[in-house]
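Revision sheet: structure tokens.
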Amino acid sequence: MIQDPEPLLHPREIAGLRPTQISVGLREVERKRQDWRHRAEREGPDFLGRHMLPVVIGPKNRAYLIDNHHLALALHLEGVTHVLVHIIADLSALTRPMFITFMDNRNWLHPFDAKGIRQDYDDIPKHVAGLVDDPYRSLAGALRRAGGYAKVDTPYAEFLWADFLRRRIKPGRVDGHFDKALSEALALANGHDTAHLPGWAGTSG
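Predicted:
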């Protein structure tokens, strides 16, 4: 049953949250860890209250995280054990095959590995600690914050940008000269080749 997001507090253990993707950008995770360290003592509970994580309840009453994987992993690595979630849908009555089909049709699954290659659904880790690093996802996140494109509600928009950048900027550039890679990404983002990507803010001239 689909539910409207509601302001009810549902505490869940981070260790029990199931990811719906394979990779994250670990630079992004580290940035969120630093932000948490800055806020934890002064406004930790308020921060967690403002950042409820969206989940879908699946078979066996498991909570599947459909966004904010970077934040969940950052909090886990910082020793936070529980977060507040809001339930987007309760699909606990479905069998696993039916659940996977529904999730896939709603674009709530992203079974792509750190190289942007699609994998089996069973390759999605069962815990946020199992998420692997895709450096291009970090580059895509940095590009958005630098004004390369706008934040949009399109699911996995940053991964679409990551895959675009993956084909145009060499891995050594991203790993060893991130700032230069970001400058290249900004130049690319302004061109017409990215006009099909969500949040595009460039010019076609």
